[in-house]
Amino acid sequence: MIKAVTAFLCFFTVNSNIGYSDMLSNPLICIAASILCSFLPWTCIPVFFGMLILGNAYAGSLEIFLVAGIVLLLAALIQSTFRAGNAILIALVPLFFYIHIPYVIPIIAGLSLGLMSTVPVSIGVMLYYLIEYISVNSSLSKAAIGSDITAMATAYAGLFGNLFKDKEIIITMAAFAFCIVIVFIISQISFESNWIVAVIAGVISIIIVSVCGYMHFELEFSFLGILPGLFISCLISLLYVFAFHAVDYQRTERLRFEDDDYIYYVKAIPKLKSLDEDEN
């Protein structure tokens, strides 16, 4: 059920923003694909996600279809080359962007999925901007179809240039990647409340990299615009920490034992338990 709901939300995100194909925008198609994904591995959700992007891009214009195809091919090559795993993040990142809490993805990825999650998260950022690009530029360069080869080449070059030279993509990818690295490193250091500190450090790192990036490229930046998303993402990440990494540092035990070859020193931190569990 969770897999089906996740797939439906990801597919709905595509159709609601670039639903140029009447057939693919049909809710029954979206529901059927979601049910199918519930019986398939999680990896299939970003595959269907990419197919929906291609289908809608083709319905928009041939030029946009070509750009989308190259971007998705590049994303597939990067993901397979690094064998990063966690491919579901590729579809989740655009979804969380559209519900305005994208920053929760790199924080939780850094806590639980490791450094290699940087690859699918970065690809997800790229696909989000691709969807935004398609939604704005679907009607561009249609006049170039059927004209001379020079005009067509100029139109294609303009489409590629507008997407791949977007400074916001670079800034967002750098902020998310830096957040994952910072959160992962701090969460692996052994001290009290390390995961909580890692979450706060991740939020601060996103702010610092974003501000520095926008200032470096001289782009307009509204801190108040991202503040609500950062605050909600921080709360969700803290709830995630308390749900899956709630430990009782006051009952920490340090153990020592040995065998024929080694002496072992172990620091044991018990998980928090409810009063009922303690009484049982």
| Low-confidence sequence ranges | 141-147
Terminal CA distance:
33 Å
Shape: globular
Q: Could you give the count of β-strands?
A: 2
Q: Calculate the mean pLDDT score and round it.
A: 84
Determine the structural class based on helices, strands and strand pairing: mainly alpha
| Rg measurement, Å | 23 Å
Number of helix segments?
12
Q: What percentage of the residues does DSSP assign to strands (E)?
A: under 5%
Helix content: 55-70%
Give the strand line-up of the largest sheet.
1-2
Main sheet specs: 2 strands, antiparallel
Question: Would you mind describing this structure in some detail?
Answer:
The chain is mostly helical and about 280 residues long. It has helices at about 1-20, 25-40, 45-60, 60-80, 90-100, 105-110, 120-135, 150-165, 165-190, 195-215, 225-245, 275-280, and strands spanning about 255-260, 265-270. A two-stranded antiparallel sheet has the order 1-2. A hairpin with a 4-residue loop joins strand 1 and strand 2 (about 265-270). Helix 3 crosses helix 5, helix 4 runs antiparallel to helix 7 (about 120-135) and helix 5 (about 90-100) packs across helix 7. The radius of gyration is 23 Å and the shape is globular. The model is unreliable at about 140-145 (pLDDT under 50).
